[in-house]
Amino acid sequence: MTLTTTEAPGPRTAHTALTASAAGPATTPAPVKLWLCPNNDLAPALAQVLATHWFDERERETAGRFLFERDRRQYLVAHTLVRRALALEAGLAEAELVIWRSRRGRPFLQPMPGGLPRGGSHLDFNLSHAGGYNLLGIVRSHRIGVDVERLDRDAQAIETITSTFAPEEQEWVACAAPGRPRDRRVLRLWTLKEAYSKALGLGLGLPFDEFAFTLAEDRGVTAFRPPAEDRSGRWRFVELEPVPDVLAAVAVPDDGDRPPVLQLHHGFPWGRAAPQNITLPAPVGATGNEANQGEQAGRSNRGSE
Q1: Which of 32, 84, 128, 210 has the most Cβ atoms closer than 10 angstroms to its Cβ?
Q2: Which of 42-51, 52-61, 281-290 has the lowest mean pLDDT?
Q3: Looking at the predicted structure, is the pLDDT value of residue 295 above 60?
Q4: CA distances from 195 to 65, 94, 145 (A)
Q5: Measuring CA to CA, which residue among 63, 32, 21, 84 is closest to residue 240?
Q6: What is the pLDDT of residue 304?
Q7: Contact (CB, 8 A) for 141 and 129
Q8: What is the mean pLDDT of the chain?
Q9: DSSP letter string, 137-193
Q10: In 3-state terms, the chain is what percent helix, strand and coil (to 5)?
Q11: Nearest 5°: phi and psi at 68?
Q12: Kind of pairing, strands 261-266 and 32-38?
């Protein structure tokens, strides 16, 4: 499967012709919501005021521990973004949201008896930030993982990242010309791996050489070999370059239903600007014995090096 892309005015992103309106309100699943917010979209003084009124005790303590103002600002913008977007989706005030963490540190919204004011009983979200950009994903069912990276990583970081990949991924990276083309391949894989492992709730606790992606030349996942820990093994992945030289990835499990539309919003969620609609591509991966066979093959390849 190759995800066909088109260029449209504004930020570059994978885009297909099918949108939520074409699918019809009766059969369209709830969209995946995605926000890309640069730190510069929220003035430092305003971010501090919002944090004072919205954050819980743990968030305030965390914000106060940063040594460098740059890191503190990143935290304030990222977490005010989370509370603002979740409040809009849930129908609650930002300060009313209760955010817990799993044993592995993954944050989640405390369920409410009787459901949320704006419908449903479940919201899953995931946050990533890098180099002054914050990426937040929200879904009303299942799980979501997101990751954002800038292309200006140093050579040592690129080499370290590559060493964590599966053998077949390292071979694909090595086929690209050194410099920008190779760096792009590395960071495409890295964002996908981060998004997937975060959707599973494992983060860096999942060795990145235990699962592998096969990518199209430009953009799109054509095949996926899941790890043994993944019993379903079927996922929908989206690669984006929402602004030049900033790569993003989204991972959501396949539930067998019609693919939901991803709505990409730019900036802090104050206004009512229309999002970009992106139809999630077909699922990739394996199920049952196929997943186990893929994992065994991966282990065999690693053992023969």
Answers
A1: 32
A2: 281-290
A3: no
A4: 27, 25, 4
A5: 32
A6: 33
A7: no
A8: 85
A9: EEESSS--EEEEEES---HHHHHHHHTTS-HHHHHHHHTSPTTHHHHHHHHHHHHHH
A10: 35, 25, 40
A11: -110, 135
A12: parallel
Cβ atoms of 222 and 285 closer than 8 Å: no
Residue 27: predicted pLDDT: 58
Q: In 129-168, which positions are buried (b, 16+ CB within 10 angstroms) versus exposed (e)?
A: bbeebbbbbbbbbebbbbbbbeeebeeeebeebbeebbeb
The DSSP bridge partners found for residue 126 are 137
Cα separation, 201 vs 144, in Å, equals 9
Joined together, the tokens standing for residue 11 give 């930020």
Count of other CB atoms within 10 angstroms of residue 118: 13
Q: What is the pLDDT of residues 74-102, one digit of tens each?
A: 999 999 999 999 999 999 999 999 999 88
Measured CA to CA, the distance from residue 190 to residue 239 in angstroms comes to 11
Lowest mean pLDDT among 28-32, 188-192, 298-302: 298-302
Q: Which residue has the tokens 């239903």?
A: 257
pLDDT value of residue 287 = 53
Residues sharing a CB contact under 8 Å with residue 304, sequence separation 6 or more, in sequence order: none
Residue with tokens 């053992």: 303
The residue among 227, 212, 231, 234 whose CA lies nearest residue 296 is 227
